[in-house]
């Protein structure tokens, strides 16, 4: 099976081109591919399927030619992946399967529009974030309050007083399974000056990653709410780089770099 490897601010993905939807990618295979010692190593897998060949998207998604079949490193599926979408778009452009400056991609969370910026960065229209209430994450015995926000996938974004660089995110943080029955992506952030935050994330299905696009948008929403704003441009610094989030009245945008770093033949099989 042919593969490519790419990343967006070091949130890294294995890309599996499967235009006709012929490959049955089991959870076990995804977990083996993402294993950083016995496999290629990645935070997730992006299977590239023609929307009309996918059985998972609704009729209105057929407006987009391509479906991003996203899987977490443990093989679980997710509705949306912001950095994955930017890397997926880079692949489509490099392969000549889509053309700049703008096109749509189908996901389990609906169609997302992507745009190529003059500097090569890729921007995704992430849709309107939905604040669903408040909840609490527990890290190292410490409780942190935050906002429950949906970007298609679930997030708990917590502003904390302790420096995020000092947190131990080697273990699953605690969360309220009554509020998040299918799990949650947990962002911990420090506001640093005007419209800038430093963020770390523990992703559902992947553990700590060096960046999370949907998490960056959730973090911007939570940071903005502390200032009483709902709109504006936010710089989100993550261990793997810097992302820009724009919040407006109707939607949100995520921008940053996305690169393909390798391609080859995968020897792993079902
Ligand atoms: N890294 C992604 C989010 C991937 C999905 C997430 N782990 C989930 O299960 O919801 C991003 O860049 O948004």
Give a topology summary.
Layout: E1 2-8, E2 11-17, H1 27-34, E3 44-50, E4 66-72, H2 82-94, E5 102-107, E6 110-116, E7 122-125, E8 130-139, E9 142-150, E10 154-159, E11 185-191, E12 196-203, E13 207-209, H3 213-227, E14 232-238, E15 241-247, E16 252-256, E17 259-265
Parallel strand pairs: 2-3, 4-5, 10-11, 12-14
Antiparallel strand pairs: 1-2, 1-17, 3-4, 5-6, 6-7, 7-16, 8-9, 9-10, 11-12, 12-13, 14-15, 15-16
The chain binds ligand LBFN2T5F.
Walk me through this protein's architecture:
- The chain has 270 residues and is mainly β.
- It folds into two domains: 2-125 and 257-265, Diaminopimelate Epimerase, Chain A, domain 1, CATH 3.10.310.10; 130-250, Diaminopimelate Epimerase, Chain A, domain 1 (Roll), CATH 3.10.310.10.
- Helix content is 13%, strand content 42%.
- It has three helices and 17 strands.
- It has helices spanning 27-34, 82-94, 213-227, and strands spanning 2-8, 11-17, 44-50, 66-72, 102-107, 110-116, 122-125, 130-139, 142-150, 154-159, 185-191, 196-203, 207-209, 232-238, 241-247, 252-256, 259-265.
- Helix 2 (82-94) links the parallel strand 4 and strand 5 (102-107).
- The chain is globular, with a radius of gyration of 18 Å.
- The mean pLDDT is 96.
- The site of the ligand N[C@@H](CCC[C@H](N)C(=O)O)C(=O)O has 17 residues, from helix 2 and helix 3.
- Keywords: Amino-acid biosynthesis, Cytoplasm, Isomerase, Lysine biosynthesis.
- It is found in: Cytoplasm.
- Catalyzes the stereoinversion of LL-2,6-diaminopimelate (L,L-DAP) to meso-diaminopimelate (meso-DAP), a precursor of L-lysine and an essential component of the bacterial peptidoglycan.
């Amino acid at each position: 099976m042919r593969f490519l490897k790419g990343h967006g601010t070091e949130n890294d993905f294995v890309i599996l081109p499967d235009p006709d939807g012929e490959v049955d990618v089991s959870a076990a295979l995804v977990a083996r591919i993402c294993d950083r010692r016995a496999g290629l190593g990645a935070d997730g897998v992006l299977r590239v399927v023609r929307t009309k060949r996918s059985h998972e998207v609704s009729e209105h998604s057929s407006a987009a030619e391509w479906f991003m079949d996203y899987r977490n490193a443990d093989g679980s599926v997710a509705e949306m992946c912001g950095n994955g979408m930017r890397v997926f778009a880079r692949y489509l452009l490099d392969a000549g399967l889509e053309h700049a400056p703008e096109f749509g991609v189908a996901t389990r969370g609906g169609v997302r529009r992507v745009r190529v910026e003059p500097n090569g960065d890729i921007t995704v229209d992430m849709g309107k974030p939905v604040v669903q209430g408040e909840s609490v994450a527990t890290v190292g015995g410490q409780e942190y309050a935050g906002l429950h926000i949906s970007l298609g996938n679930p997030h708990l974004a917590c502003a904390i007083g302790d420096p995020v660089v000092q947190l131990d995110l080697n273990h699953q943080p605690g969360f309220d399974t009554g509020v998040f029955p299918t799990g949650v992506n947990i962002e911990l952030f420090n506001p640093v000056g005007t419209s800038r935050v430093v963020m770390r994330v523990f992703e559902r299905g992947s553990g700590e990653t060096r960046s999370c696009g949907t998490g960056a948008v959730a973090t911007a929403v939570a940071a903005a709410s502390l200032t009483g704003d709902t709109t504006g441009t936010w710089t989100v610094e993550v261990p793997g780089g810097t992302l820009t989030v724009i919040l407006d009245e109707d939607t949100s945008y995520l921008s940053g770099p996305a690169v393909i770093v390798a391609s080859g033949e995968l020897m792993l099989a079902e």
